[in-house]
Amino acid sequence: MTAALQGVKVLVVEDEYLVAALMEDILASAGCVVTGPIPRLAQAVDAASTETYDVAVLDINLGGERVYPVADILARRNVPFVFVTGYGPNALPPDYAKLPRVCKPFRMAELLTAISDVVKPGHEVGTLR
To answer: Domain 2-118 falls in which CATH fold?
Structure first.
């Protein structure tokens, strides 16, 4: 699984320091090129709008702000993403509830599998609305 992620450019948007550091370590150990972690919505919107990524990992709650504007930008740019959250699917707005999600707390294999699944050739990026 990690061979498939070698060289994959990943945007990490996460505001909890320990979770962000864990994700960065997991992704780097799998051979990913990590941008971030980015802890704030405005910075994440800028990064999603201006840089090129193969995939993104998005925490839904960034200091009380929701990450959905970043998800919208990535979807428009056909960049697959995975939500990482403590929220259950029923707590998410309908447009986002069926998109790939890893629940906190997560295991290394769960995160890597979710990312591998969305970067596979032929994977269709979820469309919103």
So the answer is: Rossmann fold (3.40.50)
